[in-house]
Amino acid sequence: MSIHRREMLAGVGGGATIGLAGCTSSDDGDDDGPEISGETITLTTTTSTYDTGLLDELNAPFEDRYGVTVDAVSQGTGAALETGRNGDSDVVMVHARSLEDEFIEEGYGVNRRDVMFNDFVVVGTDEDPAGIGGGDDVEAAFATIAEEGATFVSRGDDSGTHAKELEIWEASGVDEFGEWYREAGQGMGEVLTQVAQTGDYALADRGTVLSMQSEIDLEIHVEGPIEGGPELLANPYGIVAVNPGVHDNVEYDLAMAYIGYLTSPEGQEIIEEYTVEDEQLFFPEAISEDPNFQQYVPEDWDPSETDD
Amino acid sequence: MPLEPTSLLPLFAEFPFEWNYIRSITRVSLYVSFVAVTLSTLFSLPVALLVGFKEFRGKALLTSIINTGMGFPSVVVGLVVLFAVSGQGPLGSLELVFTPEAMIISQFVLATPVITGVSLAAVSSVEQNVRDAAYAMGGTRFDVALVTIKEARYGIATALLAGFGRAISEVGSVLIVGGNIAGADGESYTRTLTTAIQLEARQGRFETAMILGAILVVLVLLVNAIVVRLGSGNGGHR
Hints:
The structure holds 2 protein chains of 2 kinds. Chain A is an alpha/beta fold. Helices cover 39% and strands 21% of the residues of chain A.
């Protein structure tokens, strides 16, 4: 392992970026593309990991050590996976196990790992018009919101949070949505801002709620499993490399280096120690003496089935 | 740090990297918009002159197509450019997706109809006798074109400003094709003022969003002032 080589790579990467930024060539700059490949990976991820500021904290040491720039694009879980399907990102970190499994089963993703978890909470204004505050039964709370017709702001954007919300509505037996149900079609932060200003309730990941606590005025009405709430509100994050067998243009080796870094003791420690307003946002779960084998394959995968 | 600059807003005192962040996204915004408008002008002006001078069948149709393009929704342009530069698209091998170059392409597509349309109107309004006079005085076609550009310079400056305004204030397409990427150290790669405003608003940091908005407005004002001054200043060419 030569440190000089890493530093040189870092220098080349930085130089290429600077050169690109200052370039005012008279063509479309088309020929600049391939020059920087090899020193940049594209990570598509969810708004929640990005908006909490965790990614910046994780990526800076990685970029220093490997001289590889991580271009983080924050989208909803659905969009992040779709970008991976098109081969436009090298690695995907999201939080909707069913959608990740689909991604892997279709052959687009390989080498999935559990990274960390936090939980979802039901937040709302302190008025709490449906009176769900303090309960620990999220299905009952959702049923009450629907009954009372209190405004519920949904992400409505095919994100991991949206997938979880739909799962809870189904579990609580609510299948009629009236005017009280609003689909924002936007990121977590925007939805929380909307709730604070005009709505009553929303389902949100604890990380974003905590990181925005100083900006907006919202209360947690139903806690997730981290604070003793129901397991239904668990929110695990997984990371998957895009399969180089399907898209040969992806930076698979660098993607695996990134996955390795995130699931290494160093990466996991950064996650463990990341706090906002003195509260830990994410709980690492990659390192274990007794690894959970189900993290590598789709949850319902049965090795005895040889369907293809 | 021996001295704390007390005159600064508390926001900046809290985040020392904030200025660097703001500076780098401003630079990306200006870089992308200027390159796009420059390319667009190089393409649009000859087209405007050609269409303005020549009489041909379908001229009215072509003009109305250009004018329709001025109102083209930016998210649609973003989507189309994304498909073009995506790994699966026709330009996929160039690996342009989520780069400033992809943003330049989409802004080029957005600004070109505006610059072409407004310049075309300006060129068409130059009196026929001015062109005839230039021709009669022995001017080549190139000389006639130069005279026309000089006569129509206010209109053309307006066209450039309109194109620049469209490019720098646009958020939909650059968000889709650029990905709103900034590095872990706060250095922008494809984050522009507009996409940063959207991001800051999403995170509830309205103060930062407002500051960025103010910078954007000031920039557009400055560029307008400079172009207007260049246009009206006497002796600019000689």
